[in-house]
Amino acid sequence: MSTEIGNDPLRNRGTAFTVEERARLGLVGKLPSAVETLDEQAARCYKQISQYQTDLEKYTYLDQLHDRNEVLFYKVVVDHIAEMLPIVYDPTIGDAIKQWSNDYRDSRAVYLSIDRPEDVRASFEGLGLGADDVDLIVVSDAQEILGIGDWGVNGTDISIGKLAVYTAAAGIDPGRVIAVNLDVGTDNEVLLNSPAYLGNRHARITGQRYDDFIDLYLKTASELFPNALLHFEDFGPSNARRILEENRPNYRIFNDDMQGTGAIVMSAVFSGLKVTKQTFSEQRLVVFGAGTAGTGMADQISAAMVRDGLSAEEAKARVWLVDRNGLVTDDMPDLPNYQAAYARPAAEVADWSRTDGVIGLLDVVRQVKPTVLIGTSTMHNGFPKAVVEALAAGVERPILLPLSNPTERIEVMPADAVPWSEGRALIATGIPVDPVSYHGVDYNIGQANNALLYPGLGLGTIVSGATHVTDGMLLAAAQAVADQVDPTALGASLLPPVDDLRASSAIVALAVAKQAMEEGVATNTPENLVQAVEDAMWQPVYPEVAE
Q1: Which residue in 168, 60, 159, 62 sits closest to 108, CA to CA?
Q2: Is 316 a catalytic residue?
Q3: Cα–Cα distance measured from residue 103 to residue 251, given in angstroms and rounded to the nearest whole number
Q4: HSE (CB half, 13 Å, CA atoms) of 226?
């Protein structure tokens, strides 16, 4: 359709325009005769999706629908959310990102190039949006995409996909969000040598020039859109932590890889502690895979230990990180800042067993007897039978969280971990898993899916107008997720399912907004907070067609 409304995905109705609307809007003869309801359109779209053989084909179909008719896109996704989430986001979006430059069609993102910092303000101003028109901006420099690494400008879809989950899960208004790609170059030689690649053709810029570009983005975005939550996604480990720590006091900033992933793990641990009847201060945590996500989890669990009465040093002393070089110790050269905080004194482990000079995971588990074992290593079978058996021998009900995804990267499948632990391990995974039957009990395995948490956290931040995303707000979100299940029955899941994310996100948003108000960081204090959350949730229904 050539008319303005037909080219606006937020207002376009396609075959749902009535005969009168078609005449008034100049659409006569440009649509088939049938006038459909939104439900009829959604049913036809779902049938079309179901005919595709691969998830990537389904992703492409939905991406095109998203660009054509947002209401219909979200209607389909919301109505089939458990099925659609893995298609519109992780893991399918990773395959789409690899092909992005080759398959480039159009994009709704804002592209900011480190080679043209003078264009940053103009790029935002060109959107025609006012200071009160934006609630959320998702930005990525695509250095560490979903475990597949550095994909430069191809990673644009990660920002778009994240926003799609925010809207589908929590009703963040899609007309009040912005997706941003920071093109700082790429170290991916395949991209740099591909004729089709659409990004800057040079290595990643680092150091002061990179930091200045981040500062420029933050200052410009917060100045032009002072009410927006600034979400950072898939930055490299050292940059992610540094950007968050340096800018958190001054901006409404959130990093899902560190804070969101850590918080959903906190939810699983909250549930596990209901079973073990212990406190955080009693936990011994081993993290296998000490990158952004793993250390972010360690940060939040150690912070919970402090809230339970330990000193910061006592809490850190109850955390062990294991990476590709084995147990992280303070005599290792060039430790990144996010690992150094948890490095064990070399003298403390001088007499521990070693294999080829390395203190491996099995030795750590035998020595530490962890109550919580987390896997973020992306190492398939990283938790072999010997590790799981040692874990179960150390404590009666260990919390076992193999969180790497997709399936070919998970540390251990629950179908193995349940019998290896004699049904005693409390398990949640990073992938959807069918129940495991063992000795007459069906063990339901919760998925530690960030989508259970960050959309509601974002909604609660927006509703309350919180000036910062505080640790207390993250903790409230984690507790709100955990409180949606009763894990105490044998075989019960530690986490709620993703089938009803709208309701789940509303519960999380309410808890987050209440916490923001209690901490004094809220700028909005509605009398009826429940109604305020409901009113803030955008629904996939066609708006009135303006005269």
Answers
A1: 159
A2: no
A3: 36
A4: 4
Low-confidence ranges of the chain (pLDDT < 70): 1-3, 547
Residues 6+ apart with CB under 8 A from 57: none
The predicted-structure confidence for 218-236, as pLDDT tens digits, reads as follows 999 999 999 999 999 999 9
Per-residue pLDDT, 329: 96
Number of H helices, E strands in the chain: 22, 14
Q: Which of 59, 89, 166, 251 is catalytic?
A: 89
pLDDT of residue 3: 59
* H/E segment holding residue 436: strand 436-438
- Cβ proximity of 138 and 163 under 8 Å: yes
Peptide bond preceding 32: is omega within 30 degrees of 0, i.e. cis? no
Residues 6+ apart with CB under 8 A from 246: none
Query: What is the Cβ-side half-sphere exposure of residue 250, based on CA atoms within 13 angstroms?
Result: 11
Question: How many CB atoms lie under 10 A from the CB of residue 441?
Answer: 14
Alpha-carbon distance of 387 to 199, in angstroms, equals: 44
The closest of 412, 408, 410 to 421, measured between CA atoms, is: 412
Any residues with CB less than 8 A from the CB of 38 and at least 6 apart, and which?
Answer: 16, 71, 72, 75, 540, 541, 542
Q: Count Cβ neighbours within 10 Å for each residue of 32-58 and write b for 16 or more, e otherwise.
A: eeebbebeebbeebeeebeeeeebbeb
Sign of CA dihedral 458, 460, 466, 469: negative
Between CA 204 and CA 202 the distance in angstroms is 7
- Give the span between the Cα atoms of 389 and 394, in whole angstroms: 9
Catalytic option among 58, 75, 162, 316: 162
Indicate the residue type of 405.
N
Torsion of the alpha carbons at 46, 50, 54 and 60, rounded to the nearest 10? -30
- Tens of pLDDT along 374-392? 999 989 999 999 999 999 9
CA 56: distance to chain centroid?
20
For residue 213, give both structure tokens.
């570009």
Amino acid at site 292: T
- Could you confirm whether 338 is annotated as catalytic? no
Model pTM score: 0.92
pLDDT for 121:
98
Please give the structure tokens belonging to residue 243.
Answer: 């950007």
